[in-house]
């Protein structure tokens, strides 16, 4: 199997390096077809707030390229090359399985990553950059992630970055009940944060872009303010959360310095970052994604169960892969067996007489002998029972 991946995440690099390789959906749509065309490989790009990973698969005689170099060039960040980790073959498969289960996430047990893995595969499918191998791999990884969530519990605290951020804010303030919060951004992460803040007892205001008023869904219990007037609500607020895909800062040091009563806490859930680092001061604390990684954990039993599930799904993928690789040989085997069956003694006479039942029995016996004759070292009672059961089902019995 010619499969490789290269990626950067919270383990291999700090936030400053990761955000240079951060890609939003529109950027992925632009670079992924170019990657597939230039490399001649099938490609899927997984880009989230804490990781960017490129998966490549090559068929036939084609040679896999340096995936790290390809990713850095596509993102326009060659200086990030030393921070990327590369994996090939089974190691890449097992890594994706663990990623989808949230076991490689910055927030351990992250419950958002499985949908992000699914979306990455769907986008590659839409762009026609995925092939059967990558598509099946990502489908199996999504199945693995869902099984881990339904069959075990990896974490005893909220798992998404938004919920983890709110939990960190609760620790900072002691309680969020009665606090005033402003959430900048009404995408998925912003809505999750807003809902969690409302549930914690905050009075929440969500910013809306004026031109998107008719397209957005505001979480229940939240007030709204146009993005352009956000500083009016930030004045005197206790907490500001920013979670946008903007390429520019949503909150700068100059803006916070101009406030008479700046917030006590700034929470930046964006990648790349939304809030300028200098916006923090003696009065105002700032947490970003790299400050949220200690809120999830798993006991040994839950971890072992999760790893068992991932091993099962990994084996299923390789079983499919092996069967796929064997298909040309299976076709050859069918042809060879058919050719040998035609040399059965009395074959022509039976065909002429129309004795279909006898002919079928002779052909079946000969076919079984020919196939099993080359597999004597692989045959056991349980395998034969499984074959009989499968044949019985196939005949309607």
TrEMBL record:
Q: Which residues are annotated as active site?
A: 49 (nucleophile)
Q: What is its EC number?
A: 1.2.1.70
Pathway listed: Porphyrin-containing compound metabolism; protoporphyrin-IX biosynthesis; 5-aminolevulinate from L-glutamyl-tRNA(Glu): step 1/2
Q: For binding substrate, which residues are annotated in this chain's numbering? A: 48-51, 105, 110-112, 116
Q: Which reaction does it catalyse?
A: (S)-4-amino-5-oxopentanoate + tRNA(Glu) + NADP(+) = L-glutamyl-tRNA(Glu) + NADPH + H(+)
Name of the top EC class for this enzyme: oxidoreductase
The UniProt annotation places NADP(+) binding at 185-190
Q: Which UniProt keywords apply?
A: NADP, Oxidoreductase, Porphyrin biosynthesis
What GO terms are given for molecular function? Answer: glutamyl-tRNA reductase activity
Q: Where is the Glutamyl-tRNA reductase N-terminal domain?
A: 7-152
The positions annotated as site (Important for activity) read: 95
PROSITE patterns named among the record's database cross-references = GLUTR (PS00747)
Can you give the residue ranges of the Quinate/shikimate 5-dehydrogenase/glutamyl-tRNA reductase domain? 169-294
Name the PANTHER family for this protein: GLUTAMYL-TRNA REDUCTASE (PTHR43013:SF1)
Q: What does it do? A: Catalyzes the NADPH-dependent reduction of glutamyl-tRNA(Glu) to glutamate 1-semialdehyde (GSA).
Matching entries from HAMAP family are given as: Glu_tRNA_reductase
The protein's assembly and partners: Homodimer.
| Domain free text | Possesses an unusual extended V-shaped dimeric structure with each monomer consisting of three distinct domains arranged along a curved 'spinal' alpha-helix. The N-terminal catalytic domain specifically recognizes the glutamate moiety of the substrate. The second domain is the NADPH-binding domain, and the third C-terminal domain is responsible for dimerization.
Additional info? During catalysis, the active site Cys acts as a nucleophile attacking the alpha-carbonyl group of tRNA-bound glutamate with the formation of a thioester intermediate between enzyme and glutamate, and the concomitant release of tRNA(Glu). The thioester intermediate is finally reduced by direct hydride transfer from NADPH, to form the product GSA.
- Homology family: Belongs to the glutamyl-tRNA reductase family.
Q: Under what name is this protein listed?
A: Glutamyl-tRNA reductase
Question: Which organism is this entry from?
Answer: Agathobaculum hominis
């Amino acid at each position: 199997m010619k499969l490789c991946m290269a990626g950067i995440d919270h383990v291999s690099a700090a936030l400053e390096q990761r955000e240079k390789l951060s890609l939003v959906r529109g950027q992925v749509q632009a670079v992924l077809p170019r990657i597939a065309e230039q490399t001649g490989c099938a490609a899927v790009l997984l880009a989230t707030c804490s990781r960017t990973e490129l998966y490549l698969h090559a068929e036939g005689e084609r040679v896999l390229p340096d995936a790290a170099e390809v990713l850095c060039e596509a993102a326009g960040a060659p200086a990030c090359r030393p921070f990327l980790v590369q994996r090939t073959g089974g190691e890449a498969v097992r890594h994706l399985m663990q990623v989808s289960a949230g076991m490689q996430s910055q927030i351990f047990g992250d419950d958002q990553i499985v949908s992000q893995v699914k979306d990455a595969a769907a986008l590659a499918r839409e762009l026609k950059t995925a092939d059967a191998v990558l598509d099946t791999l990502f489908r199996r990884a999504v199945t693995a992630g869902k099984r881990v969530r339904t069959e075990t519990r990896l974490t005893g605290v909220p798992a998404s970055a938004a919920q983890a951020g709110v939990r960190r804010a609760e620790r900072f303030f002691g309680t969020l009940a009665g606090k005033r919060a402003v959430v900048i951004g009404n995408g998925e992460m912003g809505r999750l944060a807003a809902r969690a803040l409302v549930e914690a007892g905050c009075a929440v205001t969500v910013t809306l872009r004026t031109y998107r008023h008719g397209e957005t869904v505001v979480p229940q219990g939240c007030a709204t303010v146009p993005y352009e007037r956000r500083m009016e609500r930030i004045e005197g607020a206790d907490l500001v959360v920013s979670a946008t895909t903007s390429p520019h800062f949503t909150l700068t040091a100059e803006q916070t310095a101009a406030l008479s009563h700046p917030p006590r806490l700034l929470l930046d859930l964006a990648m790349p970052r939304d809030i300028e680092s200098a916006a923090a001061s003696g009065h105002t604390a700032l947490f970003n994604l790299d400050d949220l990684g200690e809120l999830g954990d798993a006991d040994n039993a839950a971890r072992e169960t999760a790893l068992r599930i991932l091993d099962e799904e990994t084996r299923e993928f390789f079983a499919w892969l092996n069967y796929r690789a064997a298909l040309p040989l299976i076709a050859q085997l069918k042809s060879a067996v058919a050719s040998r069956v035609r040399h059965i003694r009395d074959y022509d006479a039976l065909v002429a007489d129309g004795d279909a039942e006898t002919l079928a029995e002779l052909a079946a016996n000969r076919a079984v002998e020919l196939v099993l004759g080359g597999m004597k070292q692989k045959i056991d009672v349980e395998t034969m029972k499984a074959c009989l059961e499968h044949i019985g089902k196939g005949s309607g019995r």
